[in-house]
Write a structure and sequence with these properties.
Layout lengths: L9 E2 L12 H6 L19 H14 L4 H18 L9 E5 L3 H15 L4 E5 L7 H8 L7 E3 L13 E5 L11 H13 L2 E5 L22 E5 L12 H4 L1 E5 L5 H6 L4 E4 L1 H4 L17 E5 L6 H13 L4 E6 L4 H7 L4 E4 L17 E4 L7 H13 L4 E3 L1 H9 L12 E2 L3 H8 L6 H15 L2 E4 L5 E3 L5 E4 L11 H14 L5 H23 L6 H6 L1 H6 L5
Parallel strand pairs: 2-3, 2-5, 3-4, 5-6, 6-7, 7-8, 9-18, 10-11, 10-13, 11-12, 13-14, 14-15, 15-16
Antiparallel strand pairs: 1-8, 16-17, 17-18
Helix pairs in contact: 3-4, 4-5, 10-16, 13-14, 16-17
The chain binds ligand NAX and potassium ion.
Protein name: Bifunctional NAD(P)H-hydrate repair enzyme
EC number: 4.2.1.136, 5.1.99.6
GO biological process, one term: metabolite repair
Length: 546
Amino acid sequence: MKMDRRAAQVTNAPGGPEVSGEPLEALSSRPVHPSEPAEGIEKMKLLSAAQTRALDQATIQAQHITSTDLMERAADAVTSWLLDELLLDYDTAIHVCCGPGNNGGDGLAVARNLHRAGYAVQLWLLPAARHSADFSHQQQQLPAELPAREIDPNKLPALAAGAVVVDALFGTGLSRPLAGVAAALVRHINEAGATVVAVDMPSGLLADAPQPADSAVVRANYTLSFELPKLAFLLPQNAGFVGDWQLLPIGLDPEVIRNTPVDKHFVTAEDLRGRLPKRPKFSHKGTFGHALLLAGSKGKMGAAVLATQACLRAGVGLITTRVPAVGYDILQISAPEAMCLADSASDHISELPELTPYAAIGIGPGLGQHDDTREVLHQLLTTATVPLVIDADALNLLGAHPELQKLLPPDSLLTPHPKEFERLVGEPARDDYHRLEQLRAFVGRTSCYCIIKGAYTVLAAPDGTLYFNSTGNPGMATGGSGDVLTGLLLALRAHKNLSPLDAALLGLHAHGRAGDLALPHTGHTGLLASDIVRFIGPALEELMSE
Ligand SMILES: NC(=O)C1=CN([C@@H]2O[C@H](COP(=O)(O)OP(=O)(O)OC[C@H]3O[C@@H](n4cnc5c(N)ncnc54)[C@H](O)[C@@H]3O)[C@@H](O)[C@H]2O)[C@@H](O)CC1
Ligand SMILES: [K+]
């Protein structure tokens, strides 16, 4: 069998109102707007299982079609993908395993399509007391030469390693963990070493809730989902089940999607393109703000350098970086475009500089957690009147001294990775879903923006809306990558004409995209944080208005 692991269609792919002309002071001190609409961030809404069902029904009504018609579209899309992307051979053994509901109905229609096209299909049905109407309809459409065999729990189908298994056991209708024959079959599929293609969802995975750790869940190589991604695909704990996920369009009604209220979005380039104001011809360095960065300690000056360079590459007007005395030469040499303010202490930052000139302030990269530095953070939180970007050791200090969290100015942007987030909230998350609940509670409590870094970095706005980033690659899981993000976000928060939400979304997207642009030059293995810096400019230009 020929295998083509190219990305297909939308491949694992991935706002707010502008405050043009508003003085920065007003931006930072105005009350948080809990209902700030995510204007335009609507291309990829993350719907719950119930909303997905409602969308299917609404599409059927709006387009005057039957549910069978919609199922045929889904099955045609899956069949085309198998033929065009997986490049099936006629002699490849294809096992289509169907459950009792509409996911199984999809499987029956795919099996019929493949059989008609001349492929070697074997069709297996899970024993069940009841079947959905569309399943039964599809079963009646099967040609006589394509027998549907009920799975015998005592003799599960032989699945050769070179075979393709189409998993159409359960989709969004799964309401509880799998048990009995279904669980046994799923474990059998997982052990077979076959190429597993899940229809809509890997069977056993719940669409928007965790399942017990020991549940049987299909470990798919590919998951072919319809139109919109599912929250479950974006969470690290499910990566081993979902595999490479693809979205297949089936004509779900765009108007209904637009009108479906959601609190979670998957943010794509399409959502963000044009949101970064083009640099006007007569712009000067004041237009793009003067940023202050407090970063570095002895042995961690690289973090300060990378964040400074990233801030510059993200188009900040000016940057002043406050470093301990030991870092003065290092910073001046490695970032000559930046101004450098050396602290009187040699190895750590011990004094807060005068804040008046600055449009935004970043703190954290390589900072260390000296008591003096904690005091600097304390003073910053109580005196700053401009947007703050808070990262790394500044987050650890906030975790170690929770009383400081009460001082966080509204609309500050915090950028923890999962471990820093755990320290910040003082409690490990039970699972990825619980972490999202913790994140929402945190932004609700503090009226801040907070991200959690990862494969699909998630941003929570103060109103609890979640935005999953769609760019980036595993090569970026390397030292200094987070420092680069801080610098980039700092530049965008210093930008006069960007709302806090737009600045954060643009920054997250551009960071991942810069990593993706660097990849052909470095490979995953050789990707360094400084390579990300190099491509920030091109990544941001892609999002610039005409
Ligand atoms: N017309 C539509 O609504 C469309 C639906 N589509 C497909 O339909 C799927 C959803 O179909 P359904 O809502 O019928 O749901 P599923 O086919 O995912 O499963 C529902 C069936 O499984 C049973 N069930 C649930 N949890 C179980 C468990 N733990 N153990 C054993 N049985 C269990 C239910 O009682 C029901 O019979 C989607 O994932 C998608 O694949 C697509 O065909 C697109 C169009
Ligand atoms: K499935």
